[in-house]
Amino acid sequence: MSDENGQPMLIDPAVYVGCNEADIAMTELFGGFDSRFYMAYFEAMGTVPGYEERRDLYNLYHLTNHLNLFGSAYLSAVVRTIERYS
User: Fold this and answer.
1) Per-residue pLDDT tens for 22-66?
2) Which is nearest to 28 in space by CA: 64, 59, 72, 60?
3) CATH number for 45
4) Does residue 73 have a pLDDT over 90?
5) What's phi and psi for 2, nearest 5 deg?
6) What local confidence, expressed as pLDDT, does residue 18 receive?
7) DSSP assignment of 16-67
8) Number of domains comprising the chain
9) C-alpha span between 29 and 77 (Å, rounded)
10) Per-residue b/e over 20-58, b at no fewer than 16 CB within 10 Å?
């Protein structure tokens, strides 16, 4: 697909309406993006105090999903996250 100028575009087939913090947390789960991305993102979206405390909880779903799909390599991260919020 391309835009009106013929430039390629990507449409995310997994788009949903949900909490923006959950989306941005997942970007940080496996290494993240360049710091300029996060600066621009938070400038546009703003921040809610405590995001850093919620980030790992948002990512627990993705970690347990990876544990289910790919095996025990993700177990320690799942356990660490559960223990953190216990």
Assistant:
1) 989 999 999 999 999 999 999 999 989 999 999 999 999 999 999
2) 59
3) 3.90.1200.10
4) yes
5) -135, 160
6) 84
7) ----HHHHHHHHHHTT---HHHHHHHHHHH---TTHHHHHHHHHHHHHHHHH
8) 1
9) 11
10) ebbebbeeeeeeeeeeeeeeebeeeeeeeeeeeeebbeb
pTM metric for this prediction: 0.74
CA distance 6 to 77: 43
Confidence of residue 8 (pLDDT cuts 50, 70, 90): confident
Q: How long is the chain?
A: 86
Rounded distance between C-alpha atoms, residue 43 and residue 68, angstroms: 35
In the three-class reduction of DSSP (H, G, I as helix; E, B as strand; rest coil), residue 79 is classed as: helix
Better-scored residue on pLDDT, 52 or 17? 52
Segments forming the whole domain that contains residue 45:
1-85
